Amino acid sequence: MNKILVTYATNAGSTAKIAEAVAAELGKNAAVETLPLEKVTSLEPYSAVVLGAPMIVGWHRGALAFLKRNRAALGQKPLAIFVTCVNLTQTGETSLEGVPLFIDEKLPKAPKNPARLGFKENYSTPKNYLSPILKLVKPVSIGLFGGSLQYFSMKWWQMPFVLLVIQAMPGDKRNWKAISEWAGQVAGKLAG
User: What's this model's pTM, rounded to 2 decimal places?
Assistant: First the structure.
């Protein structure tokens, strides 16, 4: 039987909860196993993979390392990726390098001047966030969702970046309806 792996990296547990929601939706029509990245020993038993991780001074380093380490195997099966973040600049992009994007409609903010993005706005564009991923793999879909930011759960070195550079406000921005909708849409792409 075909089985989908839903794997994730997380900073404080928020992305793990999203991975569980994605797995629950995919599990309506397929066998699914959910594992943190560090527990994945082989991709051989899986017919497709979903990988999720947060933006923390760039996309989670563990997730990027996983893509690099498993690049060849991931090129042989359908891969979907989701990214969690607390800031996203509205650019109107629906795809990047031919990869369809699903963007939680509640997440992006319009730039002050679309013709000239500020530093923070440019940093928070889908293109900037996703370029390191797309240099390694070509997923069937990438979902961008709001995450949960709690200052007390951050590592000390992450705090200055979050406060000074991206100026993110704490809170839970997860949109469970959008997460389920993306998982439902991506299910067919993972099956074939």
Answer: 0.88
Q: Tell me: the pLDDT tens digits for 86-99? A: 889 999 999 999 99
The pair of three-digit structure tokens given for residue 25, joined into one six-digit string: 């939706």
* CA pair distance 29, 117, nearest whole angstrom: 42
Cα–chain-centroid distance for residue 24? 17
**Contact between residue 39 and residue 56 where contact means Cβ atoms under 8 Å apart:** no
**Contact call for residues 21 and 52 (beta carbons, < 8 A):** no
Please give the mean pLDDT across all residues of the chain: 89
CB contact at 8 A, 3 and 46: yes
Question: How far apart are alpha carbons 7 and 48 in whole angstroms?
Answer: 11
**Angle (CA) 86 88 91, round 5°:** 170
